[in-house]
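Q: My labmate handed me this sequence with no annotations at all. I'd like to see what the chain might look like in three dimensions before we decide whether it's worth expressing. Could you predict it?
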Amino acid sequence: MGWMHDTLSYFKLDPVHRKYHQDEITFSIIYAFTENFMLPLSHDEVVHGKGSLLGRMPGDEWRKFSNLRLMYAYMFTHPGTKLLFMGGEFGQSAEWNHDGSLDWHLLDYGPHRGVLTLIKDLNHLYKAEPALYEFPFDNRGFEWVDYSDRENSVIVFMRKGENKEDALIVICNFTPEARPLYRIGVPYRGTWKEIFNSDNLKYSGSGVLNQGCFEYHPGKISW
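A: Here is what I predict for the chain of 223 residues:
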């Protein structure tokens, strides 16, 4: 619940203010490995006047969807197991109503189909990459690369599996600013391949491919 409240509190902020709240998005790692945690975006957060997850995101419609995709990508790459309540998988616009069905008609619109495709791809990624599931409750599966870039509202961390070749670098840019010359450190010499980007055109993103949340996988590595 701590992760959920901190994450939603952070994401409702206009990106221009997020640099003053970097601790809210990094604090969960301090306690992440003290229990076997689940990361819930649960029923309780989309009822009783709280609105939908999409509706809590700042900005115009395009930025709301961009932020929602980024939040899901951050969630799936964060240590811990995942829980997403019905409707979240396609970005339901309205608060959940137990007396009615989900708004499946929204899948007639590209941004909602983009969220659904993103969730499908994140599920496949989660199953395919050992670094995301081998040590979900153990600090052996996580390492910070950079948590202190407040000015750019960027965090970078590594997820690790049993084998070095399975390591992933996750880069989260929590602003709409493209950062084409942004440099990070990597633990292994070699070529790293981008395997996921929440700003991809197929998710109704910008297609610039240097915004949002990325996962990098090592290619040919010289140890």
